[in-house]
Amino acid sequence: MDTLLSVVVNAFTPVHLGMVLAGVVIGLIIGSMPGLSSNLGIALMLPLTFGMDPVSALILLVSLYTAAIYGGSFSAILLHTPGTSASAATAIDGFALTRKGEFNKAIRISTFASVFGGLLSAIALLAIAPPLSLLSLKFGPAEYFWLAVFGISVIGTLASGNMIKGLVSGAVGVAISTVGLDLDSGYPRFAFGFYDLQGGIGFVPAVIGLFSLSQALLMCEKPHNTIQEADPTGGGKWRLLPTWAEFKFIHPTLWRSSIIGIVIGILPGAGGDIGSWTAYNEAKRFAKNDPDFGKGSIRGVAASESANNATTGGAIIPLLTLGIPGSPSAAILLGALVLHGMQPGRTLFTEHAHFTYTVCVGFLIANLVMGFVGMAMCRYMGVVARLPNTILIIAVIVLSIVGSYSLGNNIYDVYTMMAFGILGYLMRKSGFSAAPMVLGMILGPLAEQGFRQAVQLADGPVLLHMVANPISWVLVALIVLSIGSAAYLEFSRSKLTDVMAER
Amino acid sequence: MLWVNRIVGVALILVCAALWQISADYPEMARLFPRVIFAIIVFFSALMVGRTFLPAAAAGGSGEGGTSASVMVRPVLAFVATSLALAVSTYVGFFLAMVVLAAALVPILGVRQRGWYAFATVVLLVVVYVVFVIVLNVPLTLRPPVL
Question: The DUF112 domain covers which part of the protein (chain A) (predicted)?
């Protein structure tokens, strides 16, 4: 009880509330700008958190994460251009409502649904994560190896449109993590005589390059925004909360979509976009008596927005308990956690319980604050969302350079960021997802450590030793299932394409 | 996308083969894990190349942005300009180099509202100066080191 009280008191200190507010405001601004995503926001903010204590840093980043997902709804509703991919489904009914002159209603429902989904996922995080972390106690070296392989295989198959490309990207990420001094022998691996490479390839500059600079380069292709606009003035009466009639109309959708969002968030690799589309399709199935669905129904907005924010808390559950992020943004959060000296697993809920629960409570507060700030800022978000791409491009480039330089005042980090920036751009152009590569870089050392320990402990064939434990069997089965199901889906899709081509 | 998949697949196989050879000098345990990963990359790369010879399944995983090669001119020019600005920053200082970069991006991106663009760049650099130089003590050079 004392711990609970001290956690709540700690979360409500002015510094931590300030971090929540800063994270929410920055997240809303980044999320509302079409083209900028929560990944980019977290990657750019990472260097700024280095001088902070771990609690403040993580509270800032998780607040930014959830607010950026919600912020995407502003441009979706106002400009029919989702700020983030997670808000694509919101654009259908949200923009239709704005065209009908009900902008305030759409924003009100979107805000309420986002807060509802976010709060439910924060509660799920607090309820599910501690018991789930007990599982990590049963893990030995071989299990950690399989866990890392499972994480990479799932994010590789789910987060990218092509299974093989996703798996290649993840494996290359693991290979990149092997650059630098070997921890056991001290032998420099793949450094090619460069002193800087002996320290390994920095995770943060690589993430900034892969997510931020590559996005700026992608935006250079179309530097002039082409957006549909609707006039938000006269968009109905401003209210903070939905009316009782509106709430009664959407509350089954809110519950259903939030639960879908939490479950999909927990699945490694499936982020807000998959969550919101799944919930939207489910809401459509249940809304057969709603003729407005798809043409300006508040149910559509509620389904998409509650689900995408519910995925945020869901994605943090496997991240804190097993070190497997549930979304690409959570993969960067995992990197931040490790950089601040925290290792996911049971110790986060025992030794570092104060830290973990304060961050979780901070996440809960962020979801509440986000609602008030969002409703206060909604009238001005249109201006932010309309910022010319040219201005965003120079801003992202400059911040990427400064952010990577500020890590250690070392120009080598900037060169690393530049190299990963152009690599990320070329990957995105050729259909390779950057998320599996980032996860590979994070989980690579864990996989290598588990693999080497298992090899050293084995007194017979290594492979037999690595699948000796029932948990290993389950993990191997899950790996086979994830790759097998993705392969089957791709095979079915390609057969369908063949049939259509023949016709 | 077919030829991209083939080139990337073959390139990855060649790079892995070269790195496998390079790792031959490493201590046994230091080279074991990287070699397992190289084998995995080679396996998936071969699958990726092999798939391009199958009907329909061929490409898969379309990329982002425009499909023609001409759309990549602006991003490549912007990247080159950024690299040059970074190289120049050693001699003229970080902030002046960023002003030069912003100016170089005007013709590359075809900036229309130049007044707003200039104003936004100045505001951005002032914010960077305040946050990074004053608050976080990052030694970003304000003027050429010789001055």
Answer: 17-439
DSSP state of A181: E
Q: Please indicate whether, in this complex, the C-beta atoms of A171 and B113 are within 8 angstroms of each other.
A: no
Task: Summarize pLDDT for A312-359 with one digit per residue, the tens.
Answer: 888 888 888 888 877 778 888 888 888 888 888 888 888 888 888 999
Q: Which of residues 49-88 of B touch A (CB under 8 A)?
A: 51, 54-57, 59-66, 71-72, 74-75, 78-79, 82-83, 86
SS3 A240: coil
- Whether chain A has a CB inside 8 Å of the CB on B41: the answer is yes
CA gyration radius, chain A = 22
DSSP of A75-121, one letter per residue? HHHHHSS-SSGGGHHHHHHHHHHHHTT-HHHHHHHHHHHHHHHHHHH
d(CA A240, CA A156): 41
Identify from A189, A409, A441, A503 which residue to disrupt to test chain B contact, counting B C-beta atoms within 10 A and taking the largest count.
A189
Nearest-Å Rg of the Cα atoms of chain B is: 23
Per-residue pLDDT reduced to its tens digit, A170-202? 999 999 999 999 878 888 999 888 888 888 898
Domain range annotation of chain A: 2-502
Q: Name A338's Cβ contacts closer than 8 Å, sequence gap at least 6.
A: A442
Report the 10 Å Cβ neighbour count for B69: 8
CA B29 to chain centre: 32
Model ipTM over 0.90: yes
Question: Which of A312, A371, A302 has the alpha carbon at shortest distance from A120?
Answer: A312
Q: Which residues between 50 and 69 in chain A have a beta carbon less than 8 angstroms from any beta carbon of chain B?
A: 51
Going by C-alpha positions, the residue among A65, A258, A19, A451 that lies closest to residue B40 is A451
Give the three-class secondary structure for A180.
strand
Q: Which of A:432-451 have CB within 8 Å of B? A: 432, 447-448, 451
Tokens of A268: 């490694």
Q: Tokens 């919930």 map to which residue? A: A279
Residues of chain A positioned with their CB less than 8 A from the CB of B71: 221
Token pair 């960023």 is found at B98
A304-318 mean pLDDT? 90
Residue pair A40/A17 in contact by the 8 Å Cβ criterion? no
Closest Cα in chain A to B98: A398
Instruction: Give the H/E segment covering residue A189.
Output: strand A188-189
| Cβ A454 vs Cβ A465: under 8 Å | yes
